[in-house]
Structure formats: C-alpha cells, structure tokens
Specification:
single chain, 77 residues, mainly beta, SH3 type barrels, six-stranded mixed β-sheet, 1 helix, 6 strands, globular, PRC-barrel domain-containing protein, PRC_barrel-like_sf, PRC-brl_dom
C-alpha cells in the first residue's frame, strides 16, 4: 500500500536502503512528497533518484521501502 505523506513527514531525512542520507522531504501535497537531494550527493545517486543539481522531484511510491517517525527509507536502487 502506498504511503500517504502528511505535514509530519516534511523535513524527514531520506536515506538509502543501507542508511546513507541522500536528502530531505522538502514538501508534501495531496499525499505525495517532494524530495530535495543533498548538495553533496554523488552524480550516480542523483541519476538513480532522478534529480538534477538543485532540483526537487516527487518521490515515487515504488522507490520507498518504509516511512517511520524518523526517516524515509528507499528501496535498493
């Protein structure tokens, strides 16, 4: 079942399946989250996540493994 993001998810760190921080939930609207990549995120990870330099993108539910009170964890890329 797809996670319905709420305002409580705004600002949560986004981490890879193995716990490496890659960005933050920047905004939430209509149950979807906008992801902002960390500025020092390497190019290959940016490409895998579909974000360019300074670009925010909507997180796709198929990318998300779990959402806890502390973080959004992605599936293996």
């Amino acid at each position: 079942m797809a996670h319905q993001f709420t305002d409580d998810d705004r600002g949560k760190p986004v981490v890879t399946h193995d716990g490496e921080r890659v960005g933050t939930v920047a905004d939430v609207a209509d149950g979807a989250a906008t992801f902002e990549a960390d500025k020092d995120l390497p190019g290959p990870l940016r490409e895998a996540l579909g974000v360019g330099d300074g670009v925010k993108s909507t997180m796709q539910n198929e990318q998300i493994s779990t959402v806890t009170s502390d973080e959004v964890r992605l599936k293996k890329l």
